Amino acid sequence: MIKVLITGGSGFIGTNLISFLLERGSYKVKSVDLATPKIESHKAVWECVDIRDNGALAILFEVFSPDMVVHLAARTDLRGSALEDYDSNTLGVENLIAVIKKTPSVKRVLFASSMYVCRPGYQPADMDDYDPHTVYGESKMLTERIIKGAELSVPWVIFRPTSIWGPWFSEPYIDFFKIVLGRKYFHLGKRACSKTYGYIENSVRQIEVLLEADIDRVNGRLFYIGDWPAYNISEWAEESVLNQTYRNVNVIVVDDNCNGDEYRKMTESVMDSYFNNNRVKYIKHDNNLNGAAARNTGIHNSGAEYISFLDDDDFYLPHKIERQVQILDGLGEEYGGCCCFHIRRYKKFAYRTYSVEPNKTGDFRFEFLSGKTSMPTSTLLFRAEVFRKIGGFDEAFARHQDLEFLMRFFSVYKIGISPFFDVVMQVEGYRNYPDSESAHKIKNQFLSKYDSDLRMFSEAQLKIILKHQWFEVACIYLKDRRIKASKLLFDKYVFGVDPHLGDYIRIISFVVFGIFPFTWKLSTLLLGITKYRKFYGSMYDIMK
User: What is the pTM of this model?
Assistant: First the structure.
């Protein structure tokens, strides 16, 4: 097991990095910080030590004997007026280097710096070229120079985080992201403004790469970590598909609204701005059909090698398509598609959702039928040949079109997994949820069509699947105050199969809130919190 000591472990990046490394299972972690950890379980690996205290730091290193060190501790706000205000950045790194030189167990050191060592718009000629415009940036410039001049005998790396956002988010970028993610960004003037971005879950994976990479590839080098190069802020705030790093992308917008209705007029108004964009094709249905028909229209009008779908309330992060195409290109023909992870957002709340277990690929029918995983359509990318072989979406299904299609898909193909959070999904409650009788009919339609396929599972697995499939229908009966019908479903499919606390919390949320229409969105939010194990609170604010 690799022993990693992390300074500043209670901060934004440190909190996420510790969670990530502990989940990997191959690392033993020690967190060093004056601040108390934000996550209760992190207290078990935390030591309250001031890195400016050379003696205390030396004792900690001697006792723990780390194999690797990740130095994140720093003052990061921009309110300081003099370099003395940032002595934790300069004196801290001097003490750390002195202790590392006396600790033979250390095999590699990662030092966090900042892109603020250069003012916005400045293009450094090399890693020794600086142009800071803040006192904080000047302090980070000095720390980099201290590192380079220290003559460390162990391999070292400097990395400069870009504008990183996500759980446990803090200064200096929090206010900016509140504006952008709240869709309130307004650009003043005609001069373009660019910025770099990165989601924290992706950033900690990049830090792990620096920890594990061949020494010859990283020693004595400087790296920026983030999701993509500098991007125009206005474009990034407003678009997702056209800003993909995979440049050979064409967009087909299928308008499934009825002619003349309010939503058709709104869509037409938006699409007017893309009239002269030859990468965008706008297709209108005369009448509202359904989501399956809209997706099929897009498929039939595409001549592309790969096809990806995006619902109008979801958002692609810029590397989404590029990463999925690269993964599919590296897999055999038996792999017909690729799925990425996603972030669910409800107003200012957000929680990350693993589509499947990381590093797992193949047939996931049991996982998604039993609710153990989630593969929303917006997270998927398919080879175009898939639709020629198995057909498109079944338009007879008003709901469950994705489940129905994936059942046919997995009978022929396997799926690859992109281990990045590249889709943001807006949760507005259970949109357009049918009444209880319709929900019952739709569920029967799906389960009846694939009755023979379901029989391939063991009896125990089938019980788990049916519990998940009928649970939400039983809850809708509760919402409609059909208590007897709801009880029949719960008794038959739910309570006989390993009932747990989460089941009861979800039921109570429906009973208490579902009967009041004006609080229905609140009940669905509570249901989402109980359904997904990884709840991270506010995307913008530090979780209390």
Answer: 0.54
